[in-house]
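Objective 1.3, modelling of assemblies. Example input:
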Amino acid sequence: MCIAIPGKVIEIYDYEALVDFGKVQKRVNTSLIEDIRINDYILVHAGYGVEKMNEQEALDTLDVFKMLCDDF
Amino acid sequence: MELITLAHGSGGLESAKLINDLFLSYFNNDILCKQNDASLVNPIDGILAITTDSFVVNPLFFPGGDIGKLSICGTINDLCVSGATPLYITAGFIIEEGFNMCPLEKIVYSMAKTATLAKVKIIAGDTKVVEKGKCDGIYINTTGIGVIENYVLSHQFEIGDKIIVSGSIGDHGACIMSKRAMLAFDSSLKSDCAPLHAVTKAILNASANVRMMRDPTRGGLATTLNELLLNTDKSMMIYENLLPIKEEVRNFCDILGLDPLYVANEGKLICIVSDEDSDKVLEVMQKHSLSKDAVIIGEITADHSNKVYLKTSLGATKRLSMATGELLPRIC
Amino acid sequence: MDYINSFKNVTLTKKLLAKTYKLENRPQKLLNIMEVCGTHTMSIYKNGIDKLLPSYINLLSGPGCPVCVTDISYIDAALELSENRNIIIATFGDMIRVPGSTSSLATSRANGAHIEIVYSPLDCITLAKMHPDQEVVFLSVGFETTAPLIALTIQKAMQHALLNFSVLLSLKTMPYAMERLIFDQSISIDAFICPGHVAAIIGAEVFNTLAAKYHVPMVIAGFECLDLVGAIYRLIEMINNQDYSCKNLYKRVVKVNGNTKALALLDEVFEVTDSSWRGLGIIPKTGLSLKSDFKAFNALLKFGLTLRDVKVPPKCLCGDILRGLKKPLECPLYKTVCTPLNPVGACMVSSEGTCMNFYKYNN
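Predicted structure (tokens):
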């Protein structure tokens, strides 16, 4: 129901950030995400940051999926 | 800052000055400069191809081109994909009162430059000016005339014929959408607007078995592929993992919920050619800068359902239908 | 971006798909797995996942497309506002073609209404400043992912002391709607794929509670092909093991308690109400309305409109289709009267609507 795409924070302003989605950039509202840093990845929906992407959790989830395949 | 006024379209002194100072000076050629009511051309030997198109793009200027370049490329490409060598173009302008002379000159220059590149003469024209608010800046209509020099394309598909696309899809439509005021994004998106006369010439010289060519403009590749199957008894299979899509186009489309298969192109063509000649045609296409990313994306199949099928990267087969309605960004 | 793109890995996804065929179907019946998110619907269709699963898996597309479940009366109200030449309607693109009782915004635009498609409701602030003599009304349609954004926009409008901006709300929330679907005797849902981005806002715990309470296995899933196939694989395992919990497989974005800042903002700006879902009727506690502090931004109040009670066109089966009860082919209007060019129900309008997807992608 909600298209949200991950993008990399490349500049930070007051409550906003310039986010790079891979050769496409947009300034988005980040007031609802704590502690944003340059190079963080955030999930963006319709011009606002929904949440910061957690790399470790992503890798853990990937491991879960790999484990499901491993004894195939 | 000189502006276009209603007088410029009224056929009097101001009109004559506009024609002389602007149109004739850029579109300069022996035929046009006679300034007759109709232009006379020498007899043309061969089957003629004639096409017309109108251009209302907004914004008027965009990365990769402008409405002027588009108006020449669009018509030239329609002639070229029909197998014709483009010879002559006419240009009709509808200009809004108050339009600035500076962008008008840029547009006209752009048309002249593109026409020269394609070795096409602009041999007739017309200008009307409408009251402020009655049109969106400027609209252009171009009609093109070409001649078949190689052969008439058969439009008869055979099972196993290969489908080639000349390069990345969705570039133009994504670029235009990204420049719309309320959707403004910063990106390296660039229109692929380009005249394809040299590419089609190379294709037709390389093979006598080109069944059909078409430029996938509005509605994108998916819509054009469906159009190609009308009145045939064949189907097509296209492979998702073979589709050439630029990174920025894919990402922009992802953000807005668009599918690049349905996004317009203005400098690409689809070529359907016999299986035996497909590698040869691909090779000559890849030698040209405008089609260096040409790739075989699928083939004609025996299925009589008259449909375009897509095999997804995961291996599922689904139908690829025509676009319906305008291209709208989604939220959900 | 590597770790993010890993979920698009086709090789791994194909492996996992093949592995689903090694799983048992312990209940020995057709398993109804429902997703309630339009973006999940699109991803499933786009990748063709529905065509690649074992035949006992029946993927159901529930009422997860906010455009599809927007009440006809809402569209009629939007149309009435659009007829006012002092109003600019700002909207997400998907709303343009949704049919009301007699017309759509597309038709209204053709008749001269000023309608702006925006990427973000935050763009309305600029729009309102550009047109100080006109009112900008934003059609606020969405679920919990979009609701914080509407709240942010209203806050920004207040900061800029904008008097010419308001919202026409049709915000809906998921958990009680899912509960309604579970209670619906006519459908039997064996498992849910939970909406990943709604979960990012409201948290994983909400779904865990639902799963345990009603004994329905659930997985919170992301949107790439590996996410979806992984979620379905896990759900089959959970059904087989009678595991009535919610597994969070989108932890890279979804926390146990969600986005607490967003939730606090929702609480500040909105209050929970009942909501009317097109084709489903009224579902209690599934709507959001503006609290009284923000009533100046309520377009219905500002322009003295009420939402009329409008019946769904007879024979339109969107309601049954949205609950996963019927498939598009079972609707008498599908492809005969109701087509992408002339949609009757919202399932055919929205590019995430079940009927639209069926029409576009099926042989």
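The longest helix of chain C spans residues 225-240.
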